[in-house]
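Section 5.1 Outputs to date
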Amino acid sequence: MTAIFRSNLPEQGASTMFATIEISRPELLPAGVSMVTVKSEALNRRADVSVYVPPGNEGRAMPQVVLLHGVYGSHWAWLFKGAAHQVLTRLMQEEGLPPMALVMPSDGLWGDGSGYLKHRDADYSRWIVEEVPQVGEWVCPQVAGQPVFLAGLSMGGYGTLRLGALHAQRFAGLSAHSSVTDGEDLKRFLLKRSGEMDLVEQDPLDAFSCLQNHAENLPPLRLDCGLEDELLEANRRLHARLLEAGIPHDYAEFPGGHTWEYWETHLADALRFFASILETQSAVTP
């Protein structure tokens, strides 16, 4: 029997692929923020997602922006270290950006970071690509049928590049910040106690190969990195290889390091980028 635990959600939000759902009481968190725990089929255990729906937009269609965190983090990091909800609210008020639902999952909580990869005992890729947007739809039914964007920092940038390429048809745009670009880079951030990832045979681990293999179908793509970031050279190499391969993308470098101050600042660039994609789509849709 399917058990659904919900609080003050509209009736159309009750349809779900999950065996169980728990959601936070809205009065205990910042306005528009929900924290959700679901039983994930991909992970075969519970998993967490934070969702922000800008208040005052109930019933208004809006896209989802899935934000992926880095190593050591979890679903709350973009909200309470990166102020993602405040960044979006400010851009809506000051620059007229359209409302977007921010959907912020945990990576599945393997070791110091799952890499958003397919492990033998849990499919952390499928969790992000298939299940997390369903959580967004359950919390905010008006995102159903609307574009889904993907963005992330560090390990989450790696997940954005790989999953955005491998599942290009699912995403309307990609924005990767301070990205890990391959499996070797990722290992630098994992502590030894995490152990070795037991991965099943899958697509290439380096981001460039995934992007190159799916170049014809890629959604709009942007990347940025801080000038003081230890991953700067790796991001420059990726940018150069994308140019050489003729793969369209935007690339930018800004002052800053591998820090939340940097990511909070440049999340705004990602949201502006996604808004521009929506505007372009609206202009060409009869």
